[in-house]
Amino acid sequence: MTYQQRISLLIILDTFIILTSIFISSLILNNVVQFPILISTLSVIIFHHLFSIVLKLYKKAWEYASIGELVIILKAITFSIICTAFLQIILLQDTYIRFLMITWMINVLFISGSRLAWRLLRDSLIKKYKNRKRTLIIGAGAAGTMIARQLLYNIKSELLPVAFIDDNSTKQKLDILGIPVYGGVKDIEKAVMDLNIENIIIAIPSLSKKDLNTIFEECVKTSAKTKIVPMLEDIVTGKVSVSQFRDVQVEDLLGREPNELDIESISEYITNKVVLVTGAGGSIGSEICRQVSKFNPKKLVLLGHGENSIYNIEMELRESFKNSKIQFITEIADIQDFNKLMILMKAYRPNVVYHAAAHKHVPLMEHNPEEAVKNNIIGTLNIAKVACVNSVERFVMISTDKAVNPTNVMGATKRLAEMMIQHMDKNSKTKFVAVRFGNVLGSRGSVLPLFKKQIEKGGPVTVTHPDMVRYFMTIPEASRLVIQAGALAKGGEIFVLDMGEPVKIVDLAKNLIRLSGNSLDEIGIEFTGIRPGEKLYEELLMEEEVHEKQVYPKIYIGKTTELFIEEIDEIISSFQDMDREMLKQKLIALANRKSTK
């Protein structure tokens, strides 16, 4: 039914109801025929339609009618009767109170009843709809109620809400929208069994990570498939529909509560400035670009070696920030090419450089140590030198927890790059700093993509060692804290991000298997042994670097240690003459050398 057809139908229906109510009133009051009934009839009909249009009564979706719609019906009918009474006084010098009261009551009864019948008819059709999956909604608050209402009255929905779970004891044993609140989180397993639940929806958008873990642990005890709702603000602002549920992701369980940024200090060094990001197409580099763009730089130069990844992030940023005045500039360049970097730096004169370009894959760098030297050491030195020559205000290098007491080439080259950055700071007006953190969830080098592919193929999931642990944080959180660390830079610091509690890789694998809807027995976990260069656990600071006090929530600062610059220069000048094994030994030995002071 079109909008015009719907309006026409409602006008005809209400006109018929008003005529019927006046006819019934006439029968009840035998003397009513003594006054001009035609005037009163026309008056009630005209004023009713007028007030219905003004109060937007005809625009209501009656399949979702509630108390609010009933109030509007009462207003429209009441105002029309009052106006008719005034018209009778003006034209007839009298008012027929009993006639108007009976007409008012019958109109309220019939018009409200017609709308209610509309909803009851639709509800009965929905209840007859077969093959809907019985669904348990966790959270009987605003989001949970919104979802239940949406599912109840959407014939096309495959889900049928049959119960709520909520830890609020005042709601338990009550019905909301005709759906019982079964019990608390501890009752999830029992509810699934008793009510034959096939799907679970976690409908608490403001849920903390700790509480989400608690709920998820109860959900995985059942055979029901678990989904989670989007953020409430995304629903309210219309970015997503309330029914666009998604699977619980490992990022939801391992991520942490968002940290508030010092907007003023960040804006001071980014807003209306020129920012250059190396490795802009990578996982961290691209997210830094997204976060930086929120602070409205004048220009954002996206520098990378891979043309496809740079093109993708450029297109994304242009679409996401199409209403801003930011100039997005892409440059394909290799950080090993000093002359090209110098040309670009002179052309754009950036105020801030985020250096995210690096080789990060541990086993591959073990096999190709000379490439790690070229990219992680020489490439970093190149971009740092051109930044210094061109008076860049701040230079922020992305480092890794593998730079602490490194046992592999990747970590060793990143540690030596940190030393060079600290040395550059001593001889430059540019503020050089490094930011060190552990694994990020969802990055290209993360274990998550590998685990997901293995699960899709039916398993097994391969884990190197049952006791291996790693620190994890989400890419957006790491990038936000990198930008915050840049605001804190005084020069020469190694900032260390608080990575929270370390996570066992085998527990991560188990969570991913269960999140995929499979059992551990179906997929299986296979231990393959530690790979060359790997450690069972990672550290974020060496003993001599430790500063226990946070300089900002979730950001620590390491103490400066001795810098072996001459030895690094010696490796740079002679690494191509060494065989791979000798080069690996020299890199790791130098990166682990302790202060001689």
Automatic annotation (TrEMBL):
Family from the record: Belongs to the polysaccharide synthase family.
Q: Which SUPFAM superfamilies match?
A: NAD(P)-binding Rossmann-fold domains
Which intervals hold domain Polysaccharide biosynthesis protein CapD-like?
A: 275-558
Q: Which PANTHER family match?
A: POLYSACCHARIDE BIOSYNTHESIS PROTEIN EPSC-RELATED, UDP-N-ACETYLGLUCOSAMINE 4,6-DEHYDRATASE
Q: Tell me what this protein is called.
A: Nucleoside-diphosphate sugar epimerase/dehydratase
List, alphabetically, the InterPro entries matched: NAD(P)-bd_dom_sf (IPR036291), Polysac_CapD-like (IPR003869), Polysaccharide_Synthase-Rel (IPR051203)
Q: Which residues cross the membrane?
A: 7-29, 35-58, 70-90, 96-114, 135-153
Q: Which UniProt keywords apply?
A: Membrane, Transmembrane, Transmembrane helix
Task: Establish whether keyword Translocase is in the entry.
Answer: no
